[in-house]
């Protein structure tokens, strides 16, 4: 039985990955930060099947202890300060976790069990001001946020440990991937939650930033399978994980509203643009410049040909299904909120 250690296990990707590994018969260990109230996040439903270890990415001693307890054959580093907007507000904390934290985890592995296979969650945000279309493993990086810069350090230190110490260390350059488990601070979940609330009559409109931002969106469940496949290869390497399709934020909004029977009509331009419910003329989408980034990433589009060919990776959930799954989930959650509120 293989042992796996997952940092960031309570998040979106961590929970789907834990489910996948449990299905494959792994003994799964997850790192949690100690809080006054235990928060299992997205793994509450499988908490009895996972061994939790208290540790912190900024504390090397705790990570060494986690490696000694888990004796992990595979380590998946998914822990991060992953909200791009917050990285401008907390650049030092972002660097401590997303950059130095990767080095701490690699050192812990090298100290305790250097033969372990290591996966680093890199990000398409490292491409930032894109130098070519689409982006591949060979595209030059140009990050446009403290988050992207910190993640780029994590990416390169993983490569450096692979080449310096002959460690099995991979980076997955994952493009935007969402799911029903995505946090509401992310624009995709903010949209689907708002669509549910507007449809059910408990919210009037949603405020968003750059409607013309283009992203390559896939489903987290597909992407964690790619992580696992990377660590099953004979040799470690880095891979772009993406769909090779790009959509605007506006298209995401339209798809979400269409699923609940609302047709959006756009009026105005730039920060004055609004989305109108075509049926009754009410404003349901507003643009707020507060949600624009200080340095914008206009378009991200990944070419996953290498992963498709070498990993035999197959995507199962297309864009429209991703959006409708998220909307359906939020419709259920908001309906339950309303039901509970009415009982009080």
UniProtKB/TrEMBL annotation:
GO MF term set: GDP-mannose 4,6-dehydratase activity
Cofactor(s) listed in the protein's UniProt record: NADP(+)
Catalytic activity field: GDP-alpha-D-mannose = GDP-4-dehydro-alpha-D-rhamnose + H2O
Pfam family, one: GDP_Man_Dehyd
UniProt entry keywords in alphabetical sequence: Lyase, NADP
SUPFAM superfamilies in the record: NAD(P)-binding Rossmann-fold domains
Residue span(s) of domain NAD(P)-binding: 5-326
Keyword NADP: yes
UniProt-listed HAMAP family: GDP_Man_dehydratase (MF_00955)
Family (UniProt): Belongs to the NAD(P)-dependent epimerase/dehydratase family. GDP-mannose 4,6-dehydratase subfamily.
Protein task: Catalyzes the conversion of GDP-D-mannose to GDP-4-dehydro-6-deoxy-D-mannose.
PANTHER family: GDP-MANNOSE 4,6 DEHYDRATASE (PTHR43715:SF1), GDP-MANNOSE 4,6-DEHYDRATASE (PTHR43715)
Protein name per its UniProtKB record: GDP-mannose 4,6-dehydratase
Organism, scientific name: Enterocloster hominis
Gene: gmd
